[in-house]
Amino acid sequence: MAITKILNIKSQSNLHNAIEYILKPEKTKEQLWVGGNAGNTTQEVYRTMMDTKQTWGKLDGRKGYHIIISWKPGECTEEKAYQILQEFCQEYLGENYDYVFGIHTDRKHCHGHIVFNSVNRVTGYKYRYERGDWEKFMQPITDKLCVKYGLPKLKYDKGNQKGVSYGEWKDGGKSSWKKMIRADIDYAISKSETYEEFLEQMGSMHYQIREGTSREEGEILSLKLPGQKKSCRTKKKTLGETYTVAAIRERIGKEWKRYPYPKSPKIKVCRSNGRWNRAYRMGGYQASHIWDIYEIQNRYAKGNPYAANAGSMRKHLLEIRKLRDDCRYLVRMDIRSRAALEQREQEVLQEEKRLKQQRSLEWELQNHGIYQKYQELENKLAQIPAWEDRFEQVLDELESLQAQLPNGVDQIQTGKAQLQEIRQEKRLIRQIKQMDEEHKQIRAFPKQSLHSGSKEIRWDPKKPQRKGGKKWKRNGK
């Protein structure tokens, strides 16, 4: 029989650790069994939840809740577990709470995790879990889903309903720096014909590089990315045998690849007697974001035999979907510059503020005696056939009550959906601005110096590269 636990999360660090834990690629088959409405990455989900708290001024108290559902070995497949968690979240949480879930396949028994925000992103009210809520509200949903997919009903573990520290969940906290460095080394090798070009490629990717020597392995490199606490050395024990300086020198030239950009198919000439509409001409700001999609596609277009884990590159390809949404938004809203984007952001924030005030008034209205009577009549009207005389009588009474409501009833029905749409747009704008900041940092990246005793190598991003021993020319000069 399956077992269910619910835990509360008491601090921001525990919230971040819980999200990071359930999204680990090695536990979810490279995030194949991950879903939710708050994002795809740890930072994106965490920031979405914290933004909701900050918007409603609810930064204190419990930060979230963690639900664990596990089955016996062989009792449930990964596909069924994913469907059950997805449908449970949609029915119980809906679009009211930010949530993310994942199915872990690293053990013999299949189990899933759900983390959801403690603050309702539509009303601003905090979620309150009290003893007995599982049996009253959650268990009927899980029982229905288990019966639907031919599984035994879930058993609730009452001994684990209190919040616990996520120190026991944090299994090592190992970062993915090594995988990123291996992938970047592979890419730099594939774009270089000499060792000097390899160093230039690594420098262009923001690496702080130092050369040194080791008694055991001879020549080594020390690589460090912005935000990385410690440097990573190109040793066998650290990155692997194929990532030492000697192995890199041997691989350079053998793995040089071209990354051609997709070509448009040839269009046959045809005649048309109809009227031609002028095509939408994309601006430079919009085109720069579309360029990112081609750049990511081509970078990971070909497999790499030296890659430590080719499946880990899937998370980079998932960024294409995010970039696609950004591009569609820029074109749909006809945003052609950063200034236009910031202006639209201010409009969105003002609209969100207005809708929040409206929702507060609507919740006060719902507790009003007239509105409660209006709801009773509305439910009664739905059960009366339209051809009966009572239908017209109840309808007249309903319209009379509607005129007495201060803000009208239509706003209550549409305010919730409008607030969700405006927050989704705010999230897209935030993604686009973050991408712009990354591009700005790349353009402003300073020169890098490599010191090895008296030897010094400098990388200049403005210096023309060399290919085949010939210096490239610019602008025909």
From TrEMBL:
<keyword id="KW-0175">Coiled coil</keyword>
<feature type="coiled-coil region">
    <location>
        <begin position="338"/>
        <end position="404"/>
    </location>
</feature>
<feature type="region of interest" description="Disordered">
    <location>
        <begin position="443"/>
        <end position="477"/>
    </location>
</feature>
<feature type="compositionally biased region" description="Basic residues">
    <location>
        <begin position="464"/>
        <end position="477"/>
    </location>
</feature>
<dbReference type="InterPro" id="IPR005094">
    <property type="entry name" value="Endonuclease_MobA/VirD2"/>
</dbReference>
<dbReference type="Pfam" id="PF03432">
    <property type="entry name" value="Relaxase"/>
</dbReference>
<feature type="domain" description="MobA/VirD2-like nuclease">
    <location>
        <begin position="21"/>
        <end position="151"/>
    </location>
</feature>
<feature type="compositionally biased region" description="Basic and acidic residues">
    <location>
        <begin position="453"/>
        <end position="463"/>
    </location>
</feature>
<protein>
    <submittedName>
        <fullName>Relaxase/mobilization nuclease domain-containing protein</fullName>
    </submittedName>
</protein>
